[in-house]
Amino acid sequence: MSFQQWIGQVDALLIAAVGLHHSDLADQTWRDWYESEMSPREAAEEALANEEFPGTEFWSPSRGE
Q1: 51-60 — which CB contacts under 8 Å span 24+ positions?
Q2: Distance from CA of residue 17 to its chain's centroid?
Q3: For residue 10, how far is the Cα from the chain centroid?
Q4: Is residue 65 part of a domain?
Q5: Is 15 inside any structural domain?
Q6: Which residue in 6, 18, 45, 52 has the fewest CB atoms around it within 10 Å?
Q7: Is 45 inside any structural domain?
Q8: Among candidates 46, 42, 39, 49, which has minimal Cα distance to 5?
Q9: How far apart are CA 18 and CA 57, in angstroms?
Q10: What is the pLDDT of residues 20-51, one digit of tens each?
Q11: Number of domains the chain contains
Q12: Within-domain flag for 59
């Protein structure tokens, strides 16, 4: 998967979770995470944790995510 496809998946997860696009957040190490083969879900979770967003119920396995 290309970086553009990967970040698109990150954005879809972020938008669904908090209504924000990756560019709406403080700078993250997106390219490094992509190159280290972090999944889009892991990257979105890490970004939200870094930004101290409250609750991450979105990521619950019971929701099929």
Answers
A1: 51/25, 51/26, 53/18, 56/17, 58/13, 58/16, 58/17, 58/18, 59/17
A2: 9
A3: 4
A4: no
A5: yes
A6: 52
A7: yes
A8: 39
A9: 11
A10: 999 998 899 999 999 999 999 999 989 998 88
A11: 1
A12: no
CA-based angle 14:56:29, to the nearest 5?
50
The residue type found at 15 is: I
Give the angle subtended at the CA of 1 by the CAs of 17 and 40, to the nearest 5°: 20
* Tokens standing for residue 57: 């119920």
Number of Cβ within a 10 Å radius of residue 13: 23
**Are the C-beta atoms of residues 13 and 44 closer than 8 Å to each other?**
yes
Cα Rg of the chain, angstroms: 11
pTM for the complete prediction? 0.80
Distance in angstroms (rounded) separating the CA atoms of residues 6 and 34? 7
List the structure tokens of 3.
């970086």
